[in-house]
Amino acid sequence: MKILAIAGSSRKNSNTDNFLDLFLENFNLKNEDITYLTLKDLDYSYCISCYGCAKVPRCILKDDLTDIYPIIEESDMIIFSTPIYFNSVSSISKSFIDRMQVYWSRKFLLKLPPIKEKFGICLINGGAKYTEEQFLGSELVFDHFLKVTSCKNHLTLKVSNTDENPINSENEDFIRFLNSINLDFNARKSYVLKEKNYGNK
């Protein structure tokens, strides 16, 4: 199985990085064919809305994402980990997601078949204590990302209060939360860890 694992934090050894690493470890995915993307280490532009991808089925910008598009298209699974900044995904994550406009144009403007169907996993962490709308902004962004990258089924994991309870292997509540997850490739599921309680919705 080809996996694209994306870390969307601007910091090293962050909750976002740990979330991704522990998820891969917990579900025995580290032995798969994995491509890791650490977005802060890449040099790429935000989408400039030039609509070049409305004329040809590719992004006409030339940067580090040029070689990433084929990996996205060939992947069987995409795992995207991001922190919450101002009620949405991080800025580097949003710039990356905006560049997926090429797949929206492919389907709706060029009328070409969608790219290969895959399974999507969104790992979202917020430093603040849980509120009902804490993850709404990031979920809306990911909803479009999952659709254009052909992730028909997907899993969303949300963890709050990471300022007080950092994500790491010693966080027993987080590990119990991971162990409660049913990784079902034929379904759409969402789980949230609120403070020290865990469950799904």
Automatic annotation (TrEMBL):
This is Multimeric flavodoxin WrbA. Transmembrane segments: none annotated. Residues 1-105 form the NADPH-dependent FMN reductase-like domain. Pfam families: FMN_red (PF03358). PANTHER family: IRON-SULFUR FLAVOPROTEIN, NAD(P)H-DEPENDENT FMN-CONTAINING OXIDOREDUCTASE YWQN-RELATED. It comes from Peptoniphilus stercorisuis. SUPFAM superfamilies: Flavoproteins (SSF52218). Keywords: Flavoprotein, FMN. InterPro entries: Flavoprotein-like_sf, FMN_Rdtase-like_dom, ISF_SsuE-like. It comes from the Bacteria.
